Amino acid sequence: MAKEKILIYQVFTRLFGNRVNNNKFDGTIAENGCGKMNFFDDKVLKQIRGKGYTHVWYTGIIRHATSTDYTSYGIPRQHPAIVKGKAGSPYAITDYYDVDPDLAENVDKRMTEFEQLLKRSHANGLKVIIDFVPNHVARQYKSIAKPEGVADLGADDNKDHSFNRDNNFYYCVGEEFRPDIDLYGGEDTPYTEYPAKATGNDHFDARPGKNDWYETVKLNYGIDYCDAGGRSEHFEPTPDTWKKMLSILLFWASKGVDGFRCDMAEMVPPAFWNWAIGSVKRAYPSILFVAEVYNPMEYRHYVDAGFDYLYDKVGMYDTMRNVICGNSPTSQITTAWQWVDPIHDHMLYFLENHDEQRVASDFFAGDAFRAYPAFVVNTLMRSNPFMVYAGQEYGERGMDAEGFSGKDGRTTIFDYWTVPSLYRAYVDNSLSEDEARLDALYTRILQIASKEKAVSEGQFFDLMYVNGHFASRQYAFLRKADDEMMLVVANFADEDVTCKVVIPSHAFDFLGIPHKAVEAEDMLGGGRMTADFKNDDFVLVNVSGHDCRIFKFNLSMDTDIVFNEHNKEEFPPAHTAEHLLNQTMIRMFGCERSRNAHIERKKSKISFILDHKPSRKEEKEIEDRMNQLIAEDLPVTYEVVDRDHIPADVKLDRLPADASEKLRLVRIGDYDVCPCLGKHVRSTSQIGKFVMLGTNWDEMKRSFRIRYKIV
Question: Cβ(584)–Cβ(622) under 8 Å?
Answer without folding.
Answer: yes
